[in-house]
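TODO from last week: model Alkene reductase.
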Amino acid sequence: MAHLFTPKKVGAYALSHRVVLAPMTRLRTIQPGDIPSPMMADFYGQRASAGGLEIVEGVSISIAARSYLGAASFYHDGQVEGWKAIANAVHARGGRVFMQLIHGGRQSHVEMTGGVAPVAPSVVPFEGVALTKDGFVPVSPHRALGIEEIPGVIEEFRVAAQRALDAGFDGVELHGANGYLVDQFIQDGTNKRTDAYGGPIENRVRFLREAVEALISVWGADRVGVRISPSGEWGAISDANPEATFSYVARVLDEYKIAYLHVIEPRIKGDDTLHEGHAPVAAKYLREHFSGPIIVAGGFDGESAEAIIESGDADLVAFGRHFSSNPDLPFRLQHKLPLTPYVRAAFWGGDEKHYTDFPAYQPAQQPETTV
Ligand SMILES: Cc1cc2nc3c(=O)[nH]c(=O)nc-3n(C[C@H](O)[C@H](O)[C@H](O)COP(=O)(O)O)c2cc1C
């Protein structure tokens, strides 16, 4: 039976444990230009461990793909050195690091997209927020992507993947979760198209397929992962039949033999637990449809992570909030040490405080919370 600290091969890599850093946008790039900052390199370096996997926060693939001021992006040469420093910081400690690539789609504002209307598969009323210099503000009205524009967006994914490769990353993860552009194409609440990209599920996954193929063209399938959030509610996303839709998505991705499928459990909405006390359900039904490694995320502690790996429903567990305040989380889980509580007020922007100043476990530390 597998455990949290049983080695696991994930695509091209032999990992020595199954505690993964979940992608977390922390809005700490240098402005203007979304330059990856030295404190970001510190953050990822601190959380690296020998044979461990980290997935770097959502990285916008173009100006039009941006959603949050201060969030990461990778579309110009001035960002190369910053991203190299992050990859180097993880490698220096023997870790592996994938870059999550994102297009925000309708979850944006003209101030973030270079003055143009945010794009989506279809125009559907949406009351979300974007983050601009004025704080969280209502999103700008979006427009539907013309079918002739889609190859250009796919090409942006390919170019960003190439940049990640050139910067020394170990792989890329396509952000197909949380109601951003890829997810907007997959789910029928946001995809009302009548062309080859809309209607039946075979068509609604066409955009996903093309984006995955673009990433594979750069990296090979064994260095590409995909994140999904079946029944997730972030970004007001919805589908008439999430289980059928995402089971189909899992089967499609299985064909490509990608490195892993990364699943957010529906008890989570974005950065918070929505349904306290709900058991994980999504990885369980997706397991039937995906034969490669499954990374599960959302609301896990050491005990429940161990349980889901032992059950066989998932192979690895990604931790977000607990990893934010416990840079040595794998060590602490392995030795059943207490965890330092996370600080929500520092999640969305700020400086080093409650970002890179959380210490590794000190033997004299008083238990602050038990897991
Ligand atoms: C501050 C913050 C930022 C996040 N940013 C991202 C992101 O960029 N991409 C993503 O896929 N998920 C993002 N998430 C979601 C996490 O990856 C994860 O799914 C969520 O925190 C649930 O896991 P947890 O219960 O271990 O925290 C974010 C979460 C937090 C708390």
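Done. The mean pLDDT is 97.
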